[in-house]
Amino acid sequence: MTALARTVEVTRRYGDVLALDRVSLDIRAGELVGLLGPNGAGKSTLINLFVGLRRPTSGTVELLGGSPQNPVVRRGIGVTPQETGLPDSLKVGEITDFVRAHFPDALGKDELLDRFGLSELVKRQVGSLSGGQKRRLAVALAFVGRPRLVFLDEPTTGLDVEARRTLWDGIQAFHNEGGTVVLTSHYLEEIEALAQRVVVVGQGRVLADDTVRAVRDMVGVRRVSLDAGDLPDLPGVLSTERQDGRVSLLTTDPDRLVVELVRSGTPFSGLEVRPTTLEEAFLTITAKENAHV
Ligand SMILES: Nc1ncnc2c1ncn2[C@@H]1O[C@H](COP(=O)(O)OP(=O)(O)OP(=O)(O)O)[C@@H](O)[C@H]1O
Question: Which of 288, 290, 186, 187 minimizes the C-alpha distance to 240?
C-alpha cells in the first residue's frame, strides 16, 4: 500500500522538552488511523509536523510524496487543529463558501453541511453557535476540498454523545469512499468506533502500533470501586487506592475480580465498575512495567 504520509526517525524538541523521540510512522492510503495517548504524549506535535505547521528538529517528514512545507502538496489534505478560530460575524453558509472558493473541485455546500448535520445552521452566524456546533463546523471544513488525507486533532472533545456520533458518521462516510484519516483522541471508545489501526503515543515515542483489539487489551483497565473494610488478596489487581472507606481497584479483568470478591464472603456495598481514563491506564501499565525492571 502507498504511504500518503510518513515520518522517518523524527525528533522534535521545544527547548528542553523532547516532544517526539525518533518516530517512524507510515500512513497508508485508505487507512483510518487513531493516534491515542495521554496529555503531552506528542500527538499534536506529530500532526503539526505532518501538516507542515512545524518542522522536525531532526528526521524527515513526507506528505503525499512531497514536503509538508509545499502549499501545493498541502492542498491535497484537510486539517482540523485542536483549536480553531472562526470569524464570529460570518454565517455558517458564508464560511463554507469562503473555504470552498480555495479549491478547484470543492464539495457542494449542501452536501457538506448535510454530512455533518449542519444544514439547519446554514444561516446562523458563527458567533451564535454553541461550542459543540462550532467544533462540528471546524471539522466539516477539513473535508471541503475533497482531500485525499485528513488530519483531525481531537475532533470530538467537548461534544455531547449525539454530536459526537454525527461527526463519526461524517468521518466514516469519507473513509468508506476511500479517504484516509488520521485522528487523535483521548477516548479509546472513539478510536474503537472509527479506526482499525491504533498508534499509541507516550512520552514522544510510539508505544504500540496495532489493531484496535490488541491495543484495547493493552489499555483495557477498569476501575472497580466499593465500600468495604479489609479486602483479601484478589486476582489481577494492578493497584489499590483507599479514600474515606471507599476502595478503588484497577484491573484488566473486573468480572473475575468481582466473582472472587463475592466468593471470599467479604462484606461490601456500592459496587461500581467503570472504564478508567486512558491516562490512568497508562500510569498503571507504566508503573507496573517499571516495577518489573
Ligand atoms: N510550542 C511549544 N513549546 C514548548 N513545549 C511544547 C510546545 N508544544 C508542545 N510542547 C510540549 O511538547 C510535549 C508534547 O505536546 P503535544 O501537544 O504534542 O502533546 P499531545 O499528545 O497532543 O497532548 P494533548 O493530548 O494534551 O493535546 C508536551 O510536553 C508539551 O508541553
Answer: 288
Sequence-distant contacts of 235-239: CB under 8 A, at least 24 apart: 235/260, 238/284, 238/285, 238/288, 239/284, 239/287
In this structure, the residue with its CA closest to atom 25 of ligand 1 is: 39
Q: ipTM of the predicted structure? A: 0.96
107 and 230 belong to one structural domain = no
Residue nearest (by alpha carbon) to ligand 1 atom 5: 14
pTM comes to 0.81
Domain boundary among 195, 218, 241: 218
Residue 68 CA, ligand 1 centroid: distance in Å: 20
If DSSP codes are grouped into helix, strand and coil, which group holds residue 47? helix
How far away, in angstroms, is 42 Cα from ligand 1 center? Answer: 6
Which residue would you say has higher pLDDT here, 291 or 124? 124
What is the rounded CA–CA span in Å between residue 58 and residue 192?
A: 32
In a domain, 104, yes or no: yes
Report the CATH number that the domain containing residue 145 is assigned in CATH: 3.40.50.300
Indicate which atom in ligand 1 lies nearest the CA of residue 37.
21
Q: Report yes or no: 227 and 267 within 8 Å, Cβ to Cβ.
A: no
